[in-house]
Write a structure and sequence with these properties.
Blueprint: H1 9-35, H2 45-94, H3 101-121, H4 133-142, H5 146-149, H6 152-156, H7 162-169, H8 174-191, H9 197-222, H10 227-247, H11 249-255, H12 268-290, H13 303-317
Helix pairs in contact: 1-4, 1-10, 1-12, 2-3, 2-9, 2-10, 2-12, 2-13, 3-8, 3-13, 8-9, 10-12
């Protein structure tokens, strides 16, 4: 998540540099051909104006849907924060207090759950955009993704006993199985008489809320923005950018009639066609880069930072003095 006041012009320029060169080339070629006498290339601008109007609505709809997905993802991780704290209070105050080994085991298993969940949410999907060259270049120069740099088993090893670690690593959905172990632990506490029925019910409700949070996050991760809408936007955007300079040729040629620009005003077509096409393309790209809020882009929900914050809060509840360092933004990017 970008935490600065805004993206700098330099960041935007680097991010869109490749696409801008293509747009500039598309605008230059028909303009040059028209200048050298190929006047038959000119198209009427009215159909392009209608296409641009429709495209503006489609891009706006897509960006609105993208914002809805990223805002929902932030709400989900807001629930993870609150539900984690509530669960921690219940465990600490019903299962033996701050010095209890059982309480510490449950707490550390929860840290393992946060870790397994964020690693699962960072796994790539076919429809995500982090593999694009522009995004890869921005990633290399501005930030890093901790889940891609470190191995899950090494991180989980600092939270789980060796037997549990081996068991969890043998499972496909490790986050789910860690919550299942928490449920088994709570059931064992009830069976052994450490907690009563009401306390057991409250703890189970806490685990259920965490399962709901995980399921909501997985739904966004595993269900993309519908590919039919995304495909239509892409195809119409390509047609619009390709035809736009052809539709403005006559207009910019006429612009200089009777002035000192006569015969040369046609070259303004390169500048303004590029600007208009760039604006449409960048708005579409912004929506596409925000539509998958867990993929690892600079616009993602900072699930690594949130997980670390929860861990610090819960360790503090046990009066631990050796707390991990909070994660800070790197080049205004918080992961």
């Amino acid at each position: 998540m970008h935490t600065g006041r805004r993206y700098s012009p330099q960041e935007f320029f680097k991010w869109t540099f490749r696409d801008t060169l293509w747009i500039l080339l598309i605008a230059t070629v028909p303009t040059a051909l028209y200048y050298f006498g190929w006047h038959f290339l000119a198209l009427p601008w009215q159909p392009l104006a209608l296409l641009g109007t429709g495209l503006a609505f489609i891009v706006g709809f897509k960006n609105n849907a993208s914002y809805g997905r990223i805002w929902e993802a932030r709400q989900i991780y807001g629930s993870v924060i609150n539900d984690s704290r509530n669960f921690a209070f219940l465990v600490r105050d019903t299962a033996g207090g701050k010095q209890s080994p059982i309480v510490k085991q449950v707490f550390y298993r929860h840290f393992a759950w946060l870790t397994a969940l964020r690693y699962q949410l960072r796994e790539p999907r076919n429809w995500e955009n982090t593999s694009r060259k522009s995004n890869q270049e921005f990633l290399r120069t501005h930030y890093r993704i901790p889940e891609w740099d470190g191995k899950l088993e090494e991180v989980l090893g600092s939270y789980l006993e060796e037997k549990e670690l081996t068991y969890i690593l043998s499972k496909k959905n490790r986050a789910t199985q860690l919550l299942a172990l928490q449920s088994e632990q709570v059931a064992a506490l009830k069976k052994e008489g450490h907690i009563n029925d009401i306390q057991w019910l409250e703890l189970q409700q806490g685990i259920i809320r965490l399962i709901d949070d995980q399921g909501k996050a997985e739904r966004i991760k595993n269900f993309p923005y519908p590919r039919n809408f995304a495909s239509v936007t892409t195809y119409l955007m390509f047609v619009f950018i390709l035809l736009l300079p052809f539709g403005l040729l006559r207009e910019y040629d006429k612009l200089g009639e009777g002035t000192f620009l006569e015969g040369y005003s046609i070259w303004l077509n390169v500048l303004f066609s590029t600007i208009v096409a760039w604006a449409f393309h960048v708005l579409d790209t912004i929506g596409e880069s925000s539509v998958n809020p867990f993929e690892g882009s600079a616009n993602d929900i900072p699930i690594t930072q949130i997980s670390r914050m929860i861990e610090i809060d819960m360790r503090d509840m046990l009066d631990e003095t050796s707390l991990p360092q909070p994660i800070v933004a790197e080049n205004n990017i918080l992961m």
